[in-house]
Here is the input.
Amino acid sequence: MKRLLPVLLAILAIGLLTAGAAEKAPAIAFDGIAKDVGTVTEGASLKHVFTFKNKGDATLEILKVEPS
Amino acid sequence: MLSAKQIPPGESGRIEVTINTQGQTALHKSIVVISNDPKQQQITLSLTGTVVPEFGLSERGIYFGSVPPGKEVVKELLITIPPEKSVKVLSAESTDQYVTVKLEPVPGSNGKKVRLVATQKPDTKAGYHFGMVVIKTNSTFTPELKIPVRGIVAAASQ
Here is the structure.
């Protein structure tokens, strides 16, 4: 057991160092990604706003918004 | 439309989607968002719904059928306006010279139901004829309704 202790401590130290060195990253979180607007009259212009938040710890960059 | 391309940690952003429903019966719009989020680089947003016409038609077109020469044929079509709409049907005319049309408000419907009566004239020449019934309305979304009309008059037997 005494022989194993230094090995376990070394593994723990490496683990902690790796976790500390993890890169910061953005995290996009939408309030909702699907919206059913129900029934609308033909000809009406329909508008909806999708909101999102950057819950990460780095700047979030929106690279592309492409309607299908 | 995107509010900002770069969003700092803890901040919010908006994507505004505008859709013109003209000429559509169902609504299904997808928007693909690509970001530098390593866990979800691509997210698909969806917008769905049902589009109802301002003016409901009992038939999509009028067909007088195949009839012998000299016969007058009358067909009717019902135009229905949803109760919550304040639009009105103003007039109707036919581009087919062998077809006359008139509008008759349905009694008791408070102007929400109008009957279109289309008549194929008895002097319609033999053969196939077609055209459009153009209905004018006071709606800014749907100023005109176009209904195809067609018919066949058999050649006179010798």
